[in-house]
Fold this protein.
Amino acid sequence: MDASLMTSTTAGIVSRATELFEDLSFATARAWKAAEPGRKVVGYMPIYVPRELIHAAGMLPLGIVGGGDQLEVIHGDAYYQSYICRIPRSTIELGVSGRLDFVDGMLFPSICDVIRNLSGMWKMMFPNVYARYFDVPQNYRDDIGGNYYVNELSELRHDLGTLRGKPITDDELRHSIVVYNENRRLVRELYDFRAEKPWQAPAAEVYLVLRAGLVLPVEDHSAMLRDYIAAAKAEERPRRDNCRIVLTGAFCEQPPLNLIKSLELSGCYVVDDDLLLVTRWLIGEVATDGDPLRNLASAFLHQSESTAAKYEPDLKEKGQHLVRAVKRSGAEGVIFAAPSFCDPALLDRPMLQHVLKDAGIPFIAFKYAENSGQMQPIREQAGTFADSIKLWSGA
Amino acid sequence: MTVIVTPKKAAAKEVAKDASMKKQKEMMAAHYDRLTNAPQTGEKVAATFVPGNLNELMLCFGLVNNLPEVNAIQNGLRRTSGAFVLEAEKIGHSEDVCTYVKSDIGMMAKGNLAPNGKKFPNPDVLLLSYTGCFTFMKWFELLREQYKCETIMLHTPYMGDGKITQNMIDYMVKQLKEEVIPTLERISGVKFDIDRLREHLRKSAKAEDDLVRVLQSAKAKPSPIDAYFGGIYYIGPIFGAFRGTDDAIEYYKFLRAEVEERLANGLGPVTPDGDMGKEKYRLVVEGPPNYTSFRQFWKMFYDEGAVVVASSYTKVGGVYDFGFRHDPDKPLETLAEYCLGVYTNRSLPMRIDMLANYINEYEADGLLINSIKSCNSFSAGQLLIMREVEKRTGKPAAFVESDLVDPRYFSAANIKNRLESYFQMIEQKRASARAAA
C-alpha cells in the first residue's frame, strides 16, 4: 500500500494495527527499545495501571493481555488447572517462550486472585525482572484511600526511577499526564463517533486501533487515533439495519477478534464496550498543576470507570454505569460476554442483569475464551438477540 | 409379583469424637441459637468473613456474628449444599464461580435456615472486612442486594512484595477509625470503648498461644493430632465467633490439655473411626478440604496411616505460628496486622516458604495439594508451588482436585487412586534413601 494511504485511509490504518495485533514477538516494542541505548520497557496487565509513571521514566508501557487465539500454549498449561481462565497461562507462555525477554519490568494490577497470584509466580519464574503487584484502594475518600494510593504511586515512582537510574521529576510526570490526557481525549472522541455512527467505525476496527495503543509509544498511538478518526469520518460506508448494543464483561482476558466481528455480522453494532479499559479508565482530564501523584490519585478515586474489580460503596449506584452507557450511546441492549472462569465478571453479572431488568434493558450473556474458535453459537445467539430487539423492542 | 427386598440398614456406627469436639459442638449450637433468636432478643447481627474477621471489635459493639462461609461449610457437611448450589445456578449464577457463594445464595432462596432448623435473621450490617480473596467483595455486594442493609468495607492490601508496609497499616487503621468504628457505633447504638477492645485482644492472644501449642504438637512422632482434618475442628472457635472471648480461652485450654495428654501417652490422632493406627506417613497439605465428602476424604488418609502434620488451610483465618498475637497495646494496628497476615493474603513466594518450612520442621514425607475448583485465591499458582516445594525439600508432592461444597466435583475413586500412588511414591523414596545410606 502507498505509504500515505497507511495513515489516511481506514484500511491502511487498520492494516497497520492488525500487524501490531498479530505480532506476538512484539517487534515494534523491541525496535523502540533497541533504537536508543538505555531504553526500558515495562509490561502491565489489565485492567489499569498509571501508564503516566512509566512514560515519565522514559520507558515504554507495554500492555500484555494474553496470547489470543494465535498463540499455541505449550508450557503455560502446565502451570494452571483446567478451571482457571486462559489469560494467565498464555501470559506465562509468552514469558517462558522468550517473547517477553526484552521486558524489564511487569506490573500486575489489582483485578482478581488469578492475576494477583501471577505476580508472585512472575517473581519466582523471572527473578531478574522487576515485578510488582500494583494495588489500588477500594476506599474512595481522599484522606483514606487517596493517601494510601499516593504512597503506592510514590513507591512505584521510586522503583521506576531506580530502574532507569535517575528519579522521576514532577515536571516529567506532569508532561506525561498531558500526553495521556490527549490520548484519552482521542479515545473518547473515537468512542463518541462510533456511538453516533457505528457503521463508519466497525467494532473490530476500533478494537484494533485501541489495541495498538498497548504496544506503541503513546504519542504514536495518539497520531494513529487522529488519523483513524479523520479517515473514518471521511469515508462513507454502508449502513446496515443492525441493532445497537453495549458489550460488557470483557475487561480482562480479551475475546478473539472474530468474536467481535461476529457480533456485528450477526446484526449488533457495538456502540460501547469495556474492552481495553486502560485506554480510558480515567474519565476526563487529569489535572496538570500541583502534585501530579495527588492528581492521578484524585482522578482514580473520583473519575474512573466502574467495573467488577472495583467495590461500589453505594447500592443505588451498583450497575448504573451500564444503564448510563446504554443511554449515552443510544444502545438498545447489552451483551454480557465474560471469559470462562472470570470471577469478577461472572460474580458481578447477576447484579448487573437485575439492574438492567429493572431499567427495561434487554440483555443476553455468553462466555468465551481468548482462543475460542467456534463462533457459530455466538452468531446465532447474537443474531436472535438482534432480531428480537428489532422486532419487539419498544414496539 | 416381584418383591424387592431391601436389606435392613445397619445401625449407624457412632463417630468417635474428642471431648474437645463435643465441647465445640455445644459452643456452635449455642451460637446458632443466639443468632437465630436475635429477632426476639433484640441483638444486632453482623455478617462478616472468617479471613480478616474483626471479632474483638464486633464484641465491643455487642454484635452477633454470622459467617457465611461457615454456613456454607455446615451445609457441605450436612450435604445440603449441592441443592443450594444448583438453586443458585438456576437463578443465574455461573457454574464457574465460588461454590461457597452459590451455597449461600441458594440457601437464602430456599428459606435461609440455620443448622438448628430456625431461620437466620437478616443482618443489620454486612462487615465487608475481608482479606486474601476478591470473591468476598462480590459476595457481599450480592448479599447487600438481597438484604439491602448497610455495608462497611475494610480493604486489606495484598502482601505482594512479601512485607507489611507502614502505608498498609496506616491505610487500614484510618479505615477502622474513620469508617468502620463510627458506622458500627451508629448501627449498634454502643459507644466504642478502646479499653474493652484491649481486653478482648488480650483474651485472643491467650487462646492463640494455646492454639499454636496444639498445632505445633504435630512435630512429635507420632503426631497426636491431624492438623488438617482434625485441625479444621481446632480452628473453629478462634476463626469463628469466639476469638476474644472467655469461651475461646477455656476451649483452647481444654483442647491443649487433651492434646498434651495424648502427646504424653504417645498416642496418635482421634479419627471418626476411633484412634488412628500406626503413623506411616506424615504430610503437609495445601488448600481447603472438600466438605461434602469430608469423612470419606479423611478416611482415605487414616486408612493408610497418613497423618497431616501441618496445613495451610488452618492458617486462613490467621497465621499465629510465626509469633503474631493480637496485641492489646496497639489495638487498631494489631487488627490491621492480623488481616494483612492471613495465609491467602501472602504472596506466592511467602506461601512456598511456609510450606517448605513446614515440611522440614514437621519432618513430613511430602506435600499434598488439594486444589479447589472454585477457589482461585488458593488454586491459581498451586502447580508452581508444588514444583518449587519439591525442588527445595527433595520430598515428593502430589496433586488432587475437588471442590469446597459442590458434590459434583468430588471423585472419590480418582482421589483414592492418586493418594495410593502417592503413598507408594513415598515408600520408593524411602527405599532409595535407605539403599543410598
Q: What stands out?
A: The beta strands of chain A are 41-44, 60-63, 105-109, 130-134, 243-248, 268-273, 333-339, 363-368. The mean pLDDT of chain A is 96. The longest strand of chain A covers residues 333-339. Residues 204 and 257 of chain A are 7 Å apart (CA to CA).
